[in-house]
């Protein structure tokens, strides 16, 4: 699968995925992606169904 | 969507979604597919940021999905992409959520549901999970174009959404 396809989709590398997760975690929750992953796994994120949490949580597979 | 290889199944899954999304934005669909990892993958658009739609008043759309590649027998195989969750969120000009269709098996409630949010002017419903059937991205795009008067960027949007939704319905295993 090409990284930049004429079909209009793009597959991110592991590093790019991690950066995207980090950027969105900082934007919506004011924490790094790594911190979010750690807190999520430790069930320290309160009200996980909040819009801002949901937008980051959906990106968790990028977090390794 | 089926494929002879995991990679082909993913390509067959992503292509119609890209086509559907092209009705309202030029943004790329991005994904984190890694053929060596048998776990959930992410699909989003516009680099994960909300897409500004052509509408009055201004609206934004966030599209996020998780999917897995599974081996199956019969017409649906040998490899198939199965959706593992979605978040279709529509926001106002300040990017405050108006409503969102969610399905996430990894947080309760695990059934597909709708949030009607405070920014919509309805104060009581944000924490309520209004049950829905399974929602396709095409349903949300059609809703935005027809009822929220979002301007489509391709003239054949109706035909496109009908075609991509038919492909999705052919391979889904529940509604």
List the helices and strands and how they pair.
The complex is a heterodimer of chains A (64) and B (175).
Chain A: E1 9-11, H1 14-29, H2 33-41, H3 51-57
Chain B: E1 2-3, H1 6-21, E2 29-31, E3 41-45, E4 51-52, E5 60-71, E6 79-91, E7 97-104, E8 113-116, E9 130-131, H2 137-146, H3 157-171
Antiparallel strand pairs in B: 1-6, 2-3, 3-5, 4-5, 5-6, 6-7, 7-8, 8-9
Structure description:
The complex is a heterodimer of chains A (about 60) and B (about 180). Chain A has about 60 residues and is mainly α. Chain A has helices spanning about 15-30, 35-40, 50-55; one strand at about 10. Chain A has one domain (about 15-65). Helix content of chain A is about 50%, strand content about 5%. In chain A, helix 1 runs antiparallel to helix 3. The longest helix of chain B is centred in the N-terminal third of the chain and has 16 residues, at about 5-20. In chain B, a hairpin with a 7-residue loop joins strand 5 and strand 6. Chain B has helices at about 5-20, 135-145, 155-170, and strands at about 1-5, 30, 40-45, 50, 60-70, 80-90, 95-105, 115, 130. By secondary structure, chain B is of the alpha+beta class. The chains are: A mainly alpha (about 60), B alpha+beta (about 180). At the A-B interface, strand 1, helix 1 and helix 3 of A face helix 1, strand 2, strand 3, strand 5 and strand 6 of B. Strand 1 of chain A pairs parallel with strand 2 (about 30) of chain B, so a sheet runs across the interface.
Relative strand content of chain A: under 5%
Order of helices and strands of chain A: EHHH
Tell me the overall shape of chain B.
globular
Number of strands of chain B: 9
Task: Tell me the β content of chain B.
Answer: 25-35%
DSSP strand count of chain A: 1
For the termini of chain A, the CA-CA separation is: 20 Å
Please give the largest β-sheet of chain B.
9 strands, antiparallel
Supply the helix-strand structural class of chain A. Answer: mainly alpha
Largest chain-chain contact? A-B, 22 and 39 residues
Low-pLDDT ranges of chain A: none
Count of alpha and pi helical runs of chain A: 3
pLDDT < 50 stretches of chain B: none
Oligomer: heterodimer
Helical content of chain B stands at 10-25%
Mean pLDDT reading of chain B: 89
**What is the gyration radius of chain B calculated from CA atoms?**
16 Å
What would you call the shape of chain A? globular
Structural classification of chain B: alpha+beta
Tally of helical runs of chain B: 3
Compute the gyration radius of chain A: what is it?
13 Å
């Amino acid at each position: 699968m090409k990284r930049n396809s004429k079909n209009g989709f793009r597959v991110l590398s592991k590093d790019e995925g991690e950066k995207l997760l980090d950027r969105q975690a900082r934007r919506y929750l004011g924490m790094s992606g790594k911190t979010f992953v750690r807190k999520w796994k430790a069930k320290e994120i309160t009200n996980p169904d909040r819009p801002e949490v949901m937008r980051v949580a959906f990106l968790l597979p990028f977090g390794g | 969507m089926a494929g002879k290889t995991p990679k082909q199944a993913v390509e067959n899954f992503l292509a119609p979604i890209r086509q559907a999304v092209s009705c309202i934005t030029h943004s790329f669909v991005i994904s984190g597919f890694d053929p060596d990892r048998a776990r959930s993958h992410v699909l989003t658009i516009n680099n994960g940021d909300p897409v500004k739609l052509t509408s009055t008043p201004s609206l934004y759309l966030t599209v996020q999905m998780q999917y897995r590649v599974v081996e199956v027998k019969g017409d649906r195989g040998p490899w198939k992409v199965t959706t593992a969750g979605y978040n279709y969120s529509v926001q106002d000009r300040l990017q405050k959520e108006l409503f969102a269709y969610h399905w996430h098996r990894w947080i309760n409630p695990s059934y597909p549901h709708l949030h009607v949010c405070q920014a919509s002017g309805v104060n009581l419903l944000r924490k309520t999970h209004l049950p829905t059937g399974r929602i396709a991205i095409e349903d949300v795009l059609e809703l935005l174009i027809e009822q929220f008067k979002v301007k489509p960027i391709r003239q054949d949007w109706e035909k496109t959404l009908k075609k991509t939704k038919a492909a999705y319905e052919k391979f889904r295993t529940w509604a």
